[in-house]
Amino acid sequence: MPDWSQIPQELIDTIVDEVHHSSDLKSCSLVNRAFSSRTRVRLFRHVNLGYRRYSWNTVFTKFHELCVSSLRLSASVKILTITQCHITTPPSTSGILDLIIQSLPNLAVIKLFHVDIGCFLNGPIACLSSHSLLGIHLDSVAFDNIDQFYDLLSGSPRLKSLTLSGAVLVSNTESRRSKACRALPQVEHLVLRIDHDPVDRVGALILESIFRQGGCPFSVERVRRLTIDVNNLHTVQFDRANAMLAATSQTLQELTVFLMSQTRSTPCHILCFGSIRKVCFSFMHDTGVNLWWCIRNLIYIRDKLGCSTIEELAFEIVSVDARQPVEEWKELDVLLSRPPFSDTVKLLRITNILRFTPYPDLQSSSETMRAKYESFVPLLRRKGRVSFSSVVNVSGERDQYFTSDD
Fold first, then answer.
1. Considering 23, 43, 222, 340, which has the largest number of Cβ atoms within 10 A of its Cβ?
2. Structure pTM?
């Protein structure tokens, strides 16, 4: 028996994700019976049902048959991902989804990508609610009304992780329920990466409707990790982000900010993140512009607050902009080497995200990056407070990262 603990989880996930044919599924089921419990958990903890190559009827029916024939396999499923499920996708999947969800007794996380929630009406939504999920991930999901979103969360009082990503569309934002009727899960990991395009009526519509109603269906009082998007053209995004940071200031420890590229003008709004332990900024273009905005935020913390709790400051940059360092890194180096940041900052982490690179040499890439950047951060380098790494972003159902640190 091979030592499965030594096999990369990304490889196992990819193999399982590519299994669609009924014969392959049954073969996996037979082999699964000979696996140890630990190996079974690794292989089948995350199941991805997609509409890329096979009809929904085949995918869902065969997977349900597999769950019925192998109870040990279905008990191993902790994460269920469903992609490309629309109301117009024939035939109707509502009934079979209900049966599948009922057959997964230990389901803890549901991930929906490009899904019309109408496919989950009646039985499936009620069934999902009965699982008391720990994680819900919604990416490009269309709701008929805001109450469907409430229904999805209402049965999960133990919910710890919530992701709203991509275009989250709500056709009817009026709620028929009172605030007192809603469950309030104590979310600890909150991701708000949503499309802010007003033309498509997506973006922050679901959040705006929640705040208009005065009753968010989840509590932010215990959020420890927060991921948000900000756009320098939208003041309301900064206002909402700062309101969220203020509401979570007592518990928030890690903040990730994705800077949306619109124009080369420097964002004129300040993000108040001075009371957080770990802060990460991620951007794809205009490194100099975005880095200068980050420096302005740090200057605001220095001048207005006079103290800082930041222990780790990270930057994730797409490879095209990361190849040549910009002068702003020198200013950041000086700023972080002086009070109040010199008293708290233990690490500046710079990550080069490699895209469209099939077979990169990560070690060579990290060494090249370090050689170019070291002269731009000499003060932090002497104290051993800077690190460089290269990351490969492999596009697929989810992002997969392979990292080589110096």
1. 43
2. 0.79
